[in-house]
Amino acid sequence: MAKQSIFGRIAQLAKANINALLDSAEDPAKMLDQMVRDYSNSIAEAESAIAQTIGNLRLLEQDHAEDVANAEDWGRKAIAASRKGDELRAARNAADADKFDNLAKVALGRQMAAEKEAKDAEPTIASQTAVVDQLKSGLDAMRGKLSELSAKRDQLIARAKTAETQAQVMDAMKSIDLLDPTSEISRFEEKVRREEAKVRGAQELAASSLDAQFEQLEASDESIELEARLAALKAGSGGPREVTSGQ
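RESULT FIELD:
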């Protein structure tokens, strides 16, 4: 993966507004799950690419350290050869002295080459170090976003379960309300009241019939008394007189 594409992926994911994305999602839970998978995959890819970039940087640093060490070593060799040449020249051994001076020049040449390689590598090492630092920072941001996503997913799932439980409780409450025993008692009470009213009506009807019978009886008593009085009246007057002849 190219470094530029890594930078783009990290920047895009690290700057993502999770809340805005969730607000526009039809199914936030599924979207969170997908985002967690995407972040996890991107982090794994970024970790692999960053590890490779760091590995390359460490190789550059190792080569640079070797060039610096070689330059120092060739410098020491040049000094040693130069001193030996000076000693031989002081001993009036010019031929051998020239040989060691030439060796000193060769060592100095190797030193200069090593120093040049080390110096040429330094800008690349500096830029790669900056890249690695940026990639590490971006990777940390991605990991932070992943933690945020995971926390939001857990919160959302917990809230969904709570809402589901509350809905079940409300349904249960509605069922309890529909099967409220007090409502059954009220209906039974109303039925008893109707029966009581029916009994009272029957009692009133029976009382009315009884009054009619007493009225009839009273009327019959009056008729009997009337007949009795008529009979007494007739008995008191001796009844009709019989007319005899000769009077």
